[in-house]
């Protein structure tokens, strides 16, 4: 983080933080790659923000070491780390104009007036704030304040940009716009971004990797499709989106995956049978299941009864119960849902083998 | 402040007894003072003319303004430091600061003035001590002059300066300070270029309160000034009770009230009243 203009590579080893008897973060080991867009995802109190504050230098870890580009920065105070940071609520200087806010980190670094003027001008152009230079933060809209905060955090070319739930105060359409803008800024600057959110769709949409936290522990790190399609445990599976869970019996390894009995029908899975045998949970995302009249021999399928539907515009959400009483939700095209409900309600649920995955029973 | 008409009527009715009391206790007698200023000893604006030309009145006015300004600067600066500790210090520091702010309110202004005399006079604690350690040979003139008046008034007014500052510091968003440090600003720089400007409304409110109070001080200058550093309130007293020149005393009072009124108008223009509590 000490070399401006160059993306930082961060290594956290065994980081822990206790507030009194409360363990906010426990034994976190994580590598953040150069120029990566890493999202820290988890519910409130999961330790994600604590970790961000430790990265920024505002919170001292109780244990563990933190390295930036191979240098131990665990004891280094925040002002010497100089990670760019965007706070929840932006934390702009209310008494300074847009221009002065963005110039602040350069002034602190004693850059020449000419350089400050040039770089602030470039940054204002880049975030689209031309014409607002002399306004005070209170005179700006939420989206504009957000842009000032981003510009201020990026203008001194920090090795890493830390973002603490920056979009939580914006409405939905503006949020989408700012997300796109942030992706663009990430590509243009090439800086390492570490982004905290509790919104799983935001995490999946933006990041190159997602780190999922709960109760102070890092549960899984991986690319968005990796964590979504192959969650390490039940919490990750549920936190990333709606998921159906069916009890699976007699699980054993097969050719390129596993086989087991789901509601007395043989089903197969690919790729993730390691370490699970006997009873397990079969997990399938609602959008990966389809409604059929009949399941062919060798096809994964169980019988179910449709009980309710919710029209969502682009698709319909259908709630069903299986013969053994498990609740299942699927997302299907609107006309399929109408047909399923009209046809005496009895249907088959099918899914491709590679879309089902195993979770340890009860875990 | 939104509400139906009847709500606002209700609020006005609730405030009515206070307003009535203020009119009877202050406005009515003040009108009497205004009347004296234009009727005694002879009807007309002669007293105001005399005010403008009398060198004694003018020198007292200037001294009052000078003392009030110095007291304001020193009080606000000292109060700022105390308030930072009170609002942002560790729990123990907070308790100590709060104690220091509240204790002076329990001791009467008269007691405090005599306390300062005991400390500052020629044979007071400070001069005796400095002489006994051989630091000075002759006692320093610490009292019965402007210095003594300023010390006594500052001591009295610091607690009043604390509250507007505390309110401004409490409403300050901590994340803005973190942001400054995260952007590379040292603690010192963050204090001067972020913390202090963000408490500006508190500083203005605090300074105006202290300044307005200073202008009307009577007991402290009378005791610690020893008749040599007469301030405006004491001059009014002398004109009414000793000269007696009621017309001139009344005219000075009217000018003082108008001046303070103008300052208060300024105060409420720049600072919202709720920031003062």
Automatic annotation (TrEMBL), chain A:
Pfam families: ABC_tran (PF00005), TOBE_2 (PF08402). One of its GO terms (biological process) is quaternary ammonium group transport. One of its GO terms (cellular component) is ATP-binding cassette (ABC) transporter complex. Residues 10-240 form the ABC transporter domain. InterPro entries: AAA+_ATPase (IPR003593), ABC_SmlMolc_Importer (IPR050093), ABC_transporter-like_ATP-bd (IPR003439), ABC_transporter-like_CS (IPR017871), Mo/tungstate-bd_C_term_dom (IPR008995), P-loop_NTPase (IPR027417), Transp-assoc_OB_typ2 (IPR013611). GO terms for molecular function: ATP binding; ATP hydrolysis activity; transmembrane transporter activity. Keywords: ATP-binding, Nucleotide-binding, Transport. Gene3D superfamilies: 2.40.50.100, P-loop containing nucleotide triphosphate hydrolases. It comes from the Bacteria. Belongs to the ABC transporter superfamily. This is ABC transporter, ATP-binding protein.
């Amino acid at each position: 983080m000490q070399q401006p203009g160059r993306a930082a590579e961060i290594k956290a080893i065994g980081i822990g933080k206790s507030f009194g008897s409360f363990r906010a973060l426990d034994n976190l080991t994580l590598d953040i790659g150069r120029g990566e867009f890493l999202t820290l995802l988890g519910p409130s109190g999961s330790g994600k923000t604590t970790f961000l504050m430790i990265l920024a230098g505002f919170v001292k870890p109780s244990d563990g070491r933190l390295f930036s580009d191979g240098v131990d920065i665990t004891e280094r105070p925040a002002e010497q780390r100089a990670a760019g940071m965007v706070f929840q609520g932006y934390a702009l200087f209310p008494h300074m104009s847009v221009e002065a806010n963005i110039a602040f980190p350069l002034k602190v670094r004693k850059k020449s007036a000419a350089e400050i003027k040039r770089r602030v001008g470039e940054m204002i152009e880049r975030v689209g704030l031309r014409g607002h230079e002399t306004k005070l933060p209170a005179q700006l809209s939420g989206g504009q304040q957000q842009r000032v905060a981003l510009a201020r955090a990026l203008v001194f070319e920090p090795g890493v940009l830390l973002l603490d739930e920056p979009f939580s105060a914006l409405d939905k359409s503006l949020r989408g716009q700012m997300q796109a803008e942030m992706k663009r800024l990430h590509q243009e600057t090439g800086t390492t971004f570490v982004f905290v959110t509790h919104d799983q769709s935001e995490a999946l949409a933006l990041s190159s990797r997602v780190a999922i936290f709960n109760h102070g522990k890092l549960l899984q790190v991986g690319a968005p499709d990796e964590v979504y399609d192959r969650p390490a445990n039940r919490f990750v599976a549920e936190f990333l989106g709606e998921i159906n869970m069916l009890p699976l019996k007699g699980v054993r390894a097969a050719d390129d995956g596993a086989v087991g009995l789901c509601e007395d029908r043989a089903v197969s899975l690919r790729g993730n049978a390691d370490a699970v045998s006997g009873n397990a949970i079969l997990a399938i995302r609602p959008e990966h299941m389809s409604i059929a009249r009949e399941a062919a021999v060798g096809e994964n399928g169980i019988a179910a009864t449709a009980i309710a539907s919710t029209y969502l515009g682009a698709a319909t959400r259908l709630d069903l119960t299986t013969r053994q009483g498990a609740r299942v939700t699927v997302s299907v095209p609107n006309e399929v849902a109408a047909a399923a409900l009209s046809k005496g309600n009895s249907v088959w649920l099918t899914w491709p083998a590679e879309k089902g995955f195993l979770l340890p029973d009860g875990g | 402040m939104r509400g139906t008409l009847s709500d606002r009527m209700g609020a006005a009715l609730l405030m009515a007894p206070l307003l009535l009391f203020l009119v009877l206790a202050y406005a009515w007698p003040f009108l009497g003072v205004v009347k004296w200023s234009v009727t005694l000893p002879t009807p007309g604006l002669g007293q105001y003319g005399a005010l403008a030309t009398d060198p004694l009145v003018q020198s007292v006015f200037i001294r009052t303004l000078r003392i009030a300004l110095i007291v304001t600067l020193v009080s606000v600066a000292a109060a700022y430091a105390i308030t930072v500790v009170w609002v942002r210090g560790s729990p123990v520091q907070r308790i100590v600061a709060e104690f220091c702010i509240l204790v002076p309110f329990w001791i009467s202004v008269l007691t405090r003035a005599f306390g300062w005399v005991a400390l500052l006079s020629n044979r007071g604690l400070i001069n005796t001590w400095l002489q006994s350690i051989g630091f000075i040979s002759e006692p320093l003139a610490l009292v019965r002059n402007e210095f003594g008046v300023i010390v006594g008034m500052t001591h009295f007014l610091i607690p009043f300066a604390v509250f507007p500052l505390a309110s401004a510091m409490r409403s300050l968003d901590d994340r803005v300070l973190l942001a400054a440090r995260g952007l590379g600003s040292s603690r010192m720089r963050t204090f001067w270029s972020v913390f202090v400007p963000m408490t500006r409304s508190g500083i203005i409110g605090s300074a105006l309160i202290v300044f307005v109070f200073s202008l009307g001080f009577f007991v402290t200058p009378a005791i610690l000034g020893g008749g040599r550093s007469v301030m405006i309130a004491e001059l009014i007293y002398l004109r009414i009770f000793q000269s007696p020149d009621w017309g001139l005393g009344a005219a000075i009072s009217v000018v003082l009230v108008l001046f303070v009124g103008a300052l208060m108008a300024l105060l409420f223009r720049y600072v919202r009243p709720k920031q003062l509590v």
